[in-house]
Amino acid sequence: MLRKSLWWMVALGLLSPSFASLAADAPQVFAPGVISGPAGEACPAFTPDGDTVYFDVGSMILVSHREHGTWSKPAIAPFSGQWLDHDPAMSPDGSYLVFVSNRPVTGTEALAATIKGKVSPGRGGHLWRVDRKGAGWGMPVHLPAAVNASDRTYAPSIAADGSLYFIHPDADNVFHIYRSAFEHGAYQPAARVAIGDPAAATFDPAIAPDQSMMVFNSADAKSGGTGDFYIAFREGDHWGTPINLGEAINGKPGKWSQWGAHFSPDGRTLYYTSDRRTELTFPLTPAQAQATLARMQSWDNGGDNIWYVSLVPWLDAHRAR
Fold first, then answer.
1. Is the pLDDT of residue 33 over 80?
2. Which whole-number Å values give the CA distances from 88 to 23, 108, 126, 195, in the listed order?
3. What does the alpha-carbon distance between residue 1 and residue 141 come to, in Å, rounded to a whole number?
4. Distance between CA 143 and CA 179 in Å, rounded?
5. pTM of this prediction?
């Protein structure tokens, strides 16, 4: 849908052809066999120096440290492991982290989710903040109703001024991106972000620290999927036309399930979650068969893993406009 719009704008001279013809590098799996493994990994959030990463596996958030170019065996983060925690997002200065959890807001029961009037016990999600305390972390704090207006609030991303981007469904059960500004030490009532097709569903924003660009998913509201990745740049007081990141990253429609955009600390690399697998060409040689078996046993088993790809072609094309 938006891809067709992009080509239409190119044809009319309203958008630089360089955006439509960009050649992306092939996405690579992140730390195969160490971080990306058989357990289903998602949503990497890096410290500003890039040497520590928090990510989720199943019901918990894990942490790994890079030393001498090698990532350590992941361990459960000190603030996680008891409840359904996921979607970690690091503040640009590394002083705090926001994540999604079903932990009780009051009482002892896990947060429920309400989907089309039906209550699903323990499947809800609210945003929680945990602040850095020396070399460790403090206790998670529940964010206010200005942020947690829905029991299905997910996918936080944090700007340098403290503004918080996230998603939750509207009254028609369609997800959209929202922004809560952080002013005078408090989160302000969230407003829907006007980006792309207003009738489409939008998911999982990754916001640049200065809020000058965003990568997100967009899909037809009736499709039930997360659609494709797009990049959009800020143009004054509004977002410019989103640019589809192309088949090399998104794959053909319906081929992969991909979501959870996050930026590297320098904003030049996109990290995301995907169930893509290595393409095989048959017949395999004995050596290729052994390598394929080792890879499948390590990470390439059709489950979710963390992938990354350079955004430099889009950033350079935008600067050249």
1. yes
2. 30, 23, 12, 23
3. 40
4. 14
5. 0.91
